[in-house]
Design brief:
The complex is a heterodimer of chains A (477) and B (720). With 477 residues, chain A is of the alpha/beta class. Chain A has two domains: 344 residues, 3-Layer(aba) Sandwich (Alkaline Phosphatase, subunit A), CATH 3.40.720; 56 residues. In chain A, 31% of the residues lie in helices and 14% in strands. The N terminus of chain A is likely disordered. In chain B, α9 runs parallel beside α11. Chain B contains 30 helices and six strands. Chain B is mainly α and 720 residues long. Chain B starts with a helix and ends with a helix. The longest helix of chain B is centred in the middle third of the chain and has 21 residues. Helices cover 44% and strands 3% of the residues of chain B. The chains are: A alpha/beta (477), B mainly alpha (720). Chains A and B meet through α1, α4, β6, α6 and α7 of A and α8, α16, α20, α24 and α25 of B.
């Protein structure tokens, strides 16, 4: 025990304490610098400098919920035709949760080489294939779990346990957002439902809730509680806000030193601006008929995902940092989870998304935003090269090896990186753990995964955890 | 050019060195390498201890030979200690050839070489070390020697410091004030003024019950005599059941409480709310804190075990749980880790979970400490049938707790890198070695259980435990003042913040555990009757402006509007939720069955906390993390909070009810409506300018619009 204290009253917070209060890491520091000058800048989402110079300023994660089959999409396996209908004799554990194990099953979808690069893509994606030279397919992904809940968690937060911040939250914490009038991390789910684990997939975990993903809908009230309440007209709303501000400012005058009080006054003004900005973002009236057609908004199959992709472009234009779109929601065949008939399942979900995704790429290229936008495509795991049950057409979960692709800012397109074994079961070359993918995405966004940390539970926590993980250098342009 | 030269010899590229040690070294080293490669003599005079040697030792040696751990009794984290050596001398200053320090790092014998794990010293690092020794192993005389962790303040036995007298030798009436005044006098700072009586009344009510004082209570208070009236109010409020409802929630934060398991099915924890009710009742009875610890850790193993004490052990089963884990062996240790981490943080202020995979890097906690501690809980099994969780039936009541199926404990091993497939030495129950010279005696098993938890609980709940009283006293202080005497409430270790008022904390902890019979109500009374707590909130006061927790905001609105349903205890209710918030759920139709009114208007402590779907209002207003122990609520200020509080259905409903109430109770005069509104919401009359602003507003807008504004005032959520 220290017998003679030299502390004065009140003890000034130490730097470490300040970081704890402000949310830690370099976000905390940026906040400290700005707090004194401008209460508006006190937002945890204030833009911050990156570790590296990076082209990518925005990231769009196209989450194919349920787990698309690698051998039917981006990882052609001629050997499957040869061994079609024979039992799998390799060492990988097949399937999940005691489901039936069938025989090896060739892909019914034809693979063709596309673009100058000749990147093979299956017939499921005729429109995306037009941009083959922009895609970098990683064929050697592997995850740690066979279950959707923990798989989605791992793909989104790096951990199979709930409570960890998601990739988008990390990016918002690390980089902030360019537009304070909109959330920095937007999530758009499938009308059939959210992914398993719903909000745990875009949570801020132990970080302040300000970094979490915000659900965005395409209707009149894209954000929760955005609309002026029923029965209150806009003039009344503004008058009420003005009164609130006036009364709060008088209160603040007697307590001028308190920055929280000042920030709270500003938050109401910010909310008001958010209302007009978000409504403007979802107002597609200004978009041409050609654009709507391109995104597939006029076709009922592609209308929903098309609207989301168009909305994505508009949100990127407004500076939103991270946008996640879910294809598939609810359960089983409503998602890419093709247990009973993988062929019909993938035909459905590919048809819903192929055209809108291609439109998004084309549109981003048209507007020049392609140069600063990173696209990520994939699900929580892949599917078995075997059928689920003999003579059946379903495929079970496969976490030993699966494919995802990256495209856009900073990505070396027109190539496939890594490889699965002959049958497409297990990643064998340049194996890419989900956390390696995260390290790579962070790198592309200008962030060093080893330096981006947040103090929690006595540890400097990282998205990529305590194990060593690596950026896939080949992906980088 | 240099870059090419160095790289061509297989050495680290300059930027790597720059990262570690800065420019100076790079220049220096270039010289040395020219020396080694060519014929020039080795440069020896320019090695600097602070910039060249210390970082090297820190990187390679401190983890085993530093303040936290001293293998062979050796520390290398200060020059004087390097010269001193450990069990053997390691240094012959001026003669690198006779210095074991250099021999060991240079050795080709893998048994001999240091460090034993990780990369060996590079050639140039070894050269630096050699030259430094050769040059006399100099170090600055004023270098501070890091304290040994064994001397860390919070690990020392509690003592009772003398209460300082004031200038004229008299002790202040309240010991808290005596300590604080003594500090103020030392630094010649002004004593902050006392807050106004009405501000104090509101502060007291919100602090102890989470609800504002009613107009009748305000009138009663004004008629009483100061200062006795304040003392009287404190006692009255502590005796109310609302006190337990308010303060149980603080403990629920600390113990990662939720009503569901999380993950895919996010199933309800059956009857877990009995644990919440147990806390509320226990706090209302003023159950001593040491007894609370015994019951929560070992309520089934106590000689006087009861239904109540068994419900208390729900503490151990509150964690998240995946009923379809990726790997069942790892999952088992994850569940135990949840218990170990929560127990250590909540009761001892130790971040023990970090020692799961290896010895803690920053705290004197080894993996052996961790697994010994874990072995206390490893006899526990989760009652279940497949994915379905089961309860135990005690005296006809379903209790959500673990079960020790056998008094024979399973064997527990240290797991290398935390991996269940790599067991190492076997361990027995023990408490972290740094905290005690002699391990507590763990009782032998009885015919039902191992009684290991009883052994641990008795050690934690002992007045001799150095951490327990300090940690809880600080939590209570933090809640009353907005900031703890130790600002890291879950971390009293080396990495935690030191206390701002060490003597005061020491006195409070000793008094609480030795003289106040661990009575939380006595502690509240002492704190709340101090001038220190009653002072106005200024830059000089210890008490700070801090936003109310979301529960107190919501409950306060319900109380003001008159809609609050005071029904106590029982199964959780589900407040209404915006439909849009369900959109992202896999089962949007079934996931949240809204409770009918007035059930949904009960206090927030009774709201169902679903790990996979936290009520948006709770989430945006910084509800505690539901997955791990929360040391203190975050206070963020962001636009979505304003959207919820200004546009959200709940607040608008309350504003309407509030307006209705004003019309009923204050009649049609806008002035009297506004006076009552301020009295209900802010516990004071409106100022003349407020009255004129609002009256003008009411000439064009409705009363419920004015009520919405009042419920959104900063003063409503940031009490004086």
């Amino acid at each position: 025990m220290n017998p003679a204290s030299t502390h004065t009253l009140p003890a000034a917070p130490t730097r470490r304490e300040f970081l704890l209060q402000a949310g830690g890491g370099f976000a905390g520091l940026a906040l400290a610098d700005l707090l004194s000058t401008d209460a508006r800048a006190a937002s945890p989402l204030t833009a911050k400098p990156s570790h590296f110079q990076a082209k990518a300023k925005h990231c769009v994660f196209l989450f194919m919920n349920g787990g698309p089959s690698q051998v039917d999409t981006f990882d052609p396996k001629p050997a499957l035709a040869k061994f079609h209908g024979t039992p799998y004799t390799g060492e990988a554990k097949v399937g999940s949760n005691g489901r039936a194990v069938g025989h090896l099953m060739q892909s019914p979808f034809e693979f063709q080489q596309h673009g100058q690069s000749g990147l093979p893509i299956s017939s499921l994606f005729p429109n995306i294939a037009r941009f083959a030279d922009d895609l970098c397919v990683i064929r050697s992904l592997h995850a740690d779990t066979a279950a959707h809940a923990s798989g989605c968690l791992q793909m989104n937060t790096g951990s199979i346990f709930i409570g960890k911040p998601s990739l988008g939250a990390w990016l918002n914490y690390g980089l902030g957002s360019a537009n304070q009038n909109l959330p920095g991390f937007v999530v758009m789910t499938d009308p059939r439902g959210g992914p398993i684990g719903s909000a745990s997939n875009w949570t801020a975990g132990y970080m302040p809730a300000a970094y979490q993903g915000t659900l965005f809908r395409s209707g009149v009230s894209p954000l929760l509680d955005l609309a002026t309440p029923k029965g209150t007209d806009e003039r009344t709303q503004r008058r009420s806000l003005d009164l609130l501000k006036k009364l709060n400012e008088a209160h603040l005058q007697m307590r001028p030193d308190d920055t929280e009080l000042a920030a709270r006054i500003e938050s109401y003004e910010l909310a008001y601006r958010m209302q007009s900005e978000a409504l403007h973002a979802v107002d597609l009236a200004g978009e041409s008929e050609a654009t709507r057609e391109m995104y597939g908004i006029n076709d009922p199959r592609t209308a929903d995902f098309g609207r989301k992709c168009l909305l994505t472009r508009r949100l990127i234009e407004k500076g939103v940092r991270f946008i996640q779109l879910y294809s598939g929601g609810g359960h089983l065949e409503e998602t890419w989870d093709g247990h009973s008939d993988c062929i019909a399942n993938h035909k459905l979900h590919a048809a819903e998304t192929d055209r809108p995704i291609a439109a998004l790429i084309a549109d981003l290229k048209r507007t020049g935003l392609w140069e600063e936008t990173l696209l990520v495509w994939g699900g929580e795991f892949g599917r078995t090269p075997t059928s689920e049950g003999v003579g059946k057409q379903g495929r079970d979960h496969n976490w030993h090896g699966f494919s995802m692709w990256l495209a856009g800012a900073g990505v070396q397109g027109g190539q496939a990186v890594g490889a699965t074994d002959e049958l497409g079961f297990k990643a064998v070359e340049e194996r890419c753990h989900v956390s390696d993918l995260h390290a790579t995405i962070l790198r592309l966004m200008g962030v060093d995964h080893e330096r981006l940390s947040y103090l929690n539970q006595g540890l400097n926590q990282r998205l990529t955890g305590v194990e060593e993980h690596h950026v896939l250098r080949k992906v980088l342009a | 050019m240099k870059n090419i030269l160095l790289a061509s010899f297989g050495l680290p590229r300059p930027e790597e060195i720059l990262c570690r040690r800065g420019n100076r070294l790079l220049k220096l080293r270039t010289w040395i390498w020219i020396g080694l490669l060519g014929t020039a003599p080795v440069v020896v005079a320019s090695v600097d201890y602070a910039t060249d040697i210390k970082p090297l030792l820190q990187d390679k040696c401190y983890s085993c030979h530093g303040a936290v751990k001293q293998k062979g009794g050796l520390r290398l984290d200060a020059g004087v200690l390097i010269h001193k050596g450990g069990e053997h001398s390691i240094l012959a200053a001026g003669d690198s050839g006779k210095s074991p320090l250099l021999e060991r790092v240079m050795s080709e014998d893998l048994e001999e070489r240091m460090p034993p794990k990780g990369k060996r010293l590079s050639q140039e690092q070894a050269t630096l070390l050699r030259d430094w020794i050769q040059d006399g192993a100099k170090f600055p005389p004023n270098e501070t020697v890091p304290k040994s962790p064994a001397d860390h303040w919070s690990f020392q036995p509690l003592r009772r410091p003398a209460v300082p007298g004031n200038g004229s030798g008299e002790a202040a009436a309240n010991p808290i004030d005596a300590f604080v005044l003594a500090e103020l006098q030392k630094s010649a700072r002004p004593v902050p003024a006392q807050a106004s009586p009405s501000a104090l009344l509101r502060r007291l009510h919100l602090d102890l019950t989470g609800l504002p004082p009613t107009p009748a209570e305000q009138d009663d208070f004004e008629q009483g005599q100061a200062p006795e009236r304040l003392e009287g109010i404190i006692d009255t409020l502590l005796a109310r059941p609302e006190y337990g409802e308010r303060w149980a929630r603080h403990w629920l934060d600390t113990v990662r409480y939720a009503d569901s398991n999380g993950y895919e099915r996010d199933a309800e924890k059956p009857f877990v709310w009995r644990y919440r009710d147990y806390l509320i009742d226990s706090l209302n009875q003023d159950k001593p804190y040491d007894r609370l610890i015994l019951e929560q850790l070992a309520g089934d193993e106590l000689p006087d075990a009861s239904l109540e004490s068994r419900i208390g052990t729900g503490f151990l089963r509150l964690g998240h749980w995946d009923d379809e884990p990726a790997d069942s062996a790892t999952d088992r240790f994850d569940q135990l880790d949840d218990i170990v981490s929560t127990t250590a943080q909540s009761l001892l202020g130790l971040t023990m979970g970090c020692a799961r995979c290896h010895d803690h890097k920053f705290e004197p906690l080894s993996a052996r400490d961790y697994y010994s501690f874990l072995s206390v809980f490893s006899p526990l099994q989760r009652p279940r049938k497949g994915r379905q969780e089961l309860t135990l039936t005690v005296e006809g009541t379903e209790v959500y707790c673990w079960k020790e199926p056998s008094p024979i404990p399973p064997e527990t091993y240290v797991l290398l890198r935390g991996s269940p497939s790599q067991p190492r030495e076997r361990v027995e129950p023990a408490v972290p070695a740094i905290l005690t010279k002699t391990q507590p005696a763990f009782p032998s098993p009885d015919e039902f259980t191992t009684r290991r938890r009883l052994g641990l609980a008795r050690w934690i709940a002992s007045p001799e435990n150095p951490l327990t009283a300090r940690v809880i006293v600080n939590r209570v202080w933090q809640q009353h003042f907005g900031r703890g005497l130790v600002s890291t409430a879950n971390d009293f270790g080396l990495m935690g913040s030191p206390p701002s008022h060490p003597q005061l904390l020491e006195w409070l902890a000793y008094w609480f555990s030795h003289e106040a019979q661990w009575s939380l109500k006595k502690l509240h009374r002492l704190i709340l009757s101090s001038r220190t707590w009653q002072s106005a909130k200024t830059q000089d006061s210890l008490i700070r402006y801090r936003r109310l927790e979301v529960e107190a905001i919501r409950d306060g609105m319900l109380a003001v509007s008159g809609a609050l349903n005071p029904k106590r205890l029982g199964p959780a209710m589900r407040p209404s939720i915006p439909e849009a918030a369900l959109e992202a759920n896999t089962d949007k139709q079934k996931v949240w069955a809204v409770s009918p009114e007035p059930e949904a208007s009960r206090r927030s402590v009774y709201a169902f906390i679903k790990r996979g779907l936290v009520l948006p209002m709770f989430e945006s207003l910084d509800l505690a993390d539901t997955v791990s122990s929360c040391p203190q609520r975050q206070v963020t200020t962001v636009a979505p909070q304003a959207l919820t509080l200004f546009n959200g259905t709940f607040v608008n409903q309350q504003a309407k009810a509030f307006a209705e109430r004003l019309r009923t109770e204050a009649g049609e005069s806008p002035q009297s409506q506004l006076r009552l509104a301020f009295k209900l919401a802010l516990c004071r009359p409106p100022s003349a300018s407020e009255l004129s602003e609002l009256t003008a507003f009411l000439s064009v807008e409705s009363l419920s619009e004015a009520c919405r504004v009042i419920l959104n005032l900063n003063e409503f959520v940031y009490p004086e």
